[in-house]
Specification:
Elements (H helix, E strand, L loop, with lengths): L12 E4 L2 H6 L6 E6 L32 H18 E11 L4 H10 L3 E9 L16 E8 L10 H7 L8 E3 L10 E2 L2 E2 L7 H11 L5 E4 L6 H8 L3 E6 L2 H12 L24 H6 L8 E3 L6 E4 L5 E3 L2 E3 L1 H9 L6 H4 L1 E3 L5 E3 H11 L4
Parallel strand pairs: 1-10, 2-3, 2-9, 4-6, 9-10
Antiparallel strand pairs: 3-5, 4-5, 7-8, 11-12, 12-13, 13-14, 15-16
């Protein structure tokens, strides 16, 4: 699955300058995914001092300073409006922030017509302590994931996220440590960028909401984490960064990453919703399963018998593979393709979903 892009787009480049000016120069509906890590407007009033009287290396950069909330809101509205113009209709945007700004960002997103899909809580497993002891330790940041409008389809690689989470649905709380150690970009022994995000965070975002060949825009590129992960996952990127020092750091960082050698197929987890539909009855008609054959739950404790009309019978109950599975689990609904197993020639229990995939392959349906 590879996206095509206009030849005029500056693919895999970092564009130095004001994000609004540069975004306005890019063509409408040209971007598949946007990841934005805007200034937080932390409103720090004083220096932060540790108990040992050393100075905390806080976010006090000039680019994070605004004269008022009104100025910050106008800035936010302007760049989010440009992002909406640049997003393809099926594209999505991710915006990360702290409690200082994310609620203002969320309100403006909704005012502009975006439809919020999720808030994702990044739980920092190694947060900076609250040195003054006056508040709870701030151990989270929030990402808002949104699409262009309520009814629009969008990319979500659900099964890739599920597999990444040991075959359990990925939740919206992500436990990922702050960027430290060798991953932290430094200049003369000091952090190159005060808010560098861990690659693990961008790995999930990009894997979840884009496909190989897609174009990812980061209007606040910083030290280049988005571009670095995009390169590793065979996505294209455009980075926008105002500060020349950050541009140089990001260019060197991304240039040092070797071009991925893996096949694109290794980066894609097909959605079952996109596969050709195969009914349980088709497996019986084609002889992949037989009338009177027993199906089992994964543990083997629940056993049901296949009827000629493709229904199952269990404890006197007749129903579809989904209905009987739900009844056995005492649930209102259950995916029967994931619940039922059959016994193969070697006596092993095999998922009927595996059998359905074999049917697709052997009948050229994939």
């Amino acid at each position: 699955m590879t996206s095509t892009h206009p030849d005029s787009l500056p693919l895999n480049q970092i564009l130095q300058g004001d994000c609004l000016d540069i975004m306005r120069s890019l063509p409408e509906k040209s971007v598949d995914l946007i990841f934005a890590d805007p200034p937080y407007n932390l409103q720090l009033q004083n220096e932060l001092i540790r108990p040992n009287l050393t100075l905390v290396d806080a976010v006090d950069d000039e680019w994070d300073q605004f004269s008022s909330f009104a100025e910050y809101d106008q800035f936010t509205r302007s760049w989010l409006s440009e992002c909406r113009r640049l997003l393809k209709d099926k594209g999505t945007i991710w915006v990360i922030g702290s409690y200082h700004n994310i609620f203002r960002v969320g309100s403006i997103l909704m005012d502009l017509g975006y439809w919020i899909l999720n808030d994702i809580i990044w739980h920092k497993t190694n947060p900076m302590p609250n040195f003054r002891g006056t508040r709870f330790t701030n151990a989270t940041e929030t990402m808002i994931w949104a699409k262009k409008s309520e009814k629009q389809r969008y990319t979500f690689n659900y099964h890739a996220m599920k597999h990444l989470n040991e075959d359990k649905q990925m939740r919206n709380v992500w436990h990922i440590p702050l960027c430290t150690g060798a991953e932290r970009v430094k200049v003369k022994g000091k952090k190159a960028h005060s808010t560098q995000k861990p690659e693990a965070l961008l790995y999930r975002v990009i894997l979840a909401a884009s496909n190989p060949g897609d174009l990812i825009l980061d209007p606040f590129f910083g030290s280049g984490t988005t571009g670095a992960v995009a390169r590793k996952l065979k996505r294209n990127f455009i980075g926008i960064e105002r500060e020349s020092d950050y541009v140089k750091i990001a260019q060197e960082r991304i240039a040092a990453i070797p071009s991925p050698l893996c096949d694109t197929d290794l980066l894609v987890t097909p959605s079952k919703r996109d596969l050709p539909r195969v009914t349980f009855g088709q497996l019986i008609e084609a002889g992949y399963l037989t009338v009177g054959q027993t199906l089992y739950s994964k543990s083997g404790e629940i056993r049901a018998t296949i009827k000629a009309d493709s229904q199952l019978i269990w404890n006197g109950l007749n129903g579809s593979i989904h209905q009987v599975a739900a009844k056995a689990l005492q649930k209102s609904a259950q995916n029967g393709w994931e619940y039922w197993y059959y016994e193969d020639e070697g006596g092993e229990l095999v998922s009927i979903d595996t059998l359905r995939n074999r049917y697709r392959q052997e009948n050229n349906l994939v």
